[in-house]
Amino acid sequence: MSLSMFESGLYGRLRQQAGSHWRGYVAHDFVQQLGAGTLPEPAFRRYLTQDYLFLIHFARAYALLVSKLQTPAQMRAASASLNAILNELPLHLSYCQQWGLSESDIIQVEEAAETINYTRYVLDVGHSGDVLDLLTVLMPCVAGYAEIGLRLLNDPATVFEGNPYGPWIRNYGDESYLAGVQSSLTLFETLAQQRGGDSRFAELTTLFTTATRLEGAFWQMGLDAKS
Q: Where is the Thiaminase-2/PQQC domain (predicted)?
């Protein structure tokens, strides 16, 4: 998958419309410091714990997405993403343990306001809107993380040797992960055609940009935990 894949279709238009909010998300200081290997460890631990709590609600949102779809092919595509998230949870815990964070440590952590704001927004859109609305607010995370990962992997300034965050960055070059992102982009474009995405561009832009802003706030939440 090349970065140009994120520039086409309705997704590409929504991404472009998000403007400075999108740039602030994919090029956030948290991301830049990850690539340089200079991110304070407390900031990364804060991110890891909140990301685990985030993934639980993200799985709920994908379960809701499956329930809103009407064709077996589309349900299978969304179910594959749901299963990938559920399978990622134990892997995430295993990764957290490498950073001195046990499952009991994570479960006892309260959700940050940024985690609550983002996940409940996604679920609220999912319950109040249709399937295209829901997938629109999921896509900044689904495709945005792939873009961030690929940018870091392809940036000559990214440090890998001696960088404690190198394994996290390398995860985004995994072929199965990128194939899942491509599947989500394809599903999004299909639903956009079926559900009048072009005629709903203004409202979808609001949803997409709001989710993007909440992604940026999630990075900042981690960055603020420097000690």
A: 16-224
Q: How many CB atoms lie within 10 A of CB 21?
A: 18
Which two three-digit tokens encode residue 70? 């009407």
Angle (CA) 58 141 145, round 5° = 125
Tell me what pLDDT residue 190 has: 96
126-130's contacts with Cβ under 8 Å and 24+ in sequence apart are 126/61, 126/64, 126/65, 126/68, 127/64, 129/207, 130/68, 130/195
Going along the chain from its start, the domains and CATH numbers come out as 3-224 (1.20.910.10)
Q: Which two tokens stand for residue 38?
A: 């200079």
Cα distance between residue 76 and residue 6, in whole Å: 23
| Residues constituting the chain | 227
Q: What is the pLDDT of residue 16?
A: 96
pLDDT in tens, 160-183: 999 999 988 998 888 888 999 999
